[in-house]
Amino acid sequence: MGGMSPIHWIAVIVVVLLVFGTKKLRNIGTDMGAAVKGFKDGMKPEGDAAKETTTATQQVAQDAQQQTAKDPHTVDVSAKEVR
After folding, report:
1. Are 64 and 76 in contact (CB under 8 A)?
2. pLDDT tens track for 50-68
3. I want to staple 52 with a disulfide (CB 3.0 to 4.6 A). Which of 25, 41, 79, 80 is the partner?
4. Sign of CA dihedral 13, 15, 18, 21
5. For the chain, which residues make up each domain, given as ranges?
């Protein structure tokens, strides 16, 4: 009575997919992965962190470009110039 059966978990997953959609969930997963990687890099010693930060920054920029190329309706707010 206290636990959830596999059928209940499947129903919860279906509802979450219907509410958020697979695209938003994929973006959230990518963002969470980048955040965890950034946290791990921040915990490294200072010498290693500088090299890894540059590499991680380049990787995030490349991932953002690839995502934008896949979906032309995506707008990168930070890339716009403010006049």
Report:
1. yes
2. 666 677 777 877 777 776 6
3. 41
4. negative
5. 22-71
